[in-house]
Amino acid sequence: MADHFQLRLVESHMLAPTVRHLSFERADGQPLAFVPGQFLQVHFHYDDGTATKRSYSVGTVGDGASPVQRVEIAVSYVEGGAATKLLGELPIGGIIDASGPYGRFCLQDADTHPRYLLMATGTGVTPYRAMLPRFEKLLAAGGREVVLLYGARNETELLYGEEFEAFAQSHPGFTFHGCLSRQPRTVPRPHDRNGHVQNVLAELQPHADRDIAYLCGNPNMVDAAFTALQEFGLPVKQIRREKYVSSR
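^ thats the sequence. predicted structure below, dont judge the formating
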């Protein structure tokens, strides 16, 4: 059963020109138990009093197994959006109503394929940040590889990009490709790729015997990548999907 609780904002900063990182703690002082890959729902009302809610993946990097004190999310700015107004103007100490965790976009213990293909755009990269401790353990055990393809228009929109770069440098077997569709970096990096994430798949040559794929972010990317992976022979059961839809 999902829990209902209040969250108090303790820190926030801009990750990109239109994306804010927010850190909360539960108002009741309890830690949040969640599985990396799950999301919370924020509950609020439109100006006319109609109840509504928005979903945000938990991006907190803990140990990958224990409850966390900080509840971290990334929120995209939507012009005229009600959630943007609520969360963009929320002061430190401000309270919001939430519930969760929800979702099954999580790593499965039964998966034994040697490579994880992770694909994301925008704030869809957030759940992979929370998964890093679990990937660290999988890589340490040997026989596994993780490739993250993260699509953005330019380098300022690669959310948590430096964290993923640092993780890749310190963990052999983890590769991070920043896929830039509009403008390359001022100083390109060896693993950068130009174009959309799904267009990099041919380079990686996905194979049903080798890969488990996770797709998260813009619905157009998720659909295109899903089709491409099927064309490479991956069965549906080896492709996990989570679509992020911007709502007013």
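DSSP finds five helices and twelve strands in the chain.
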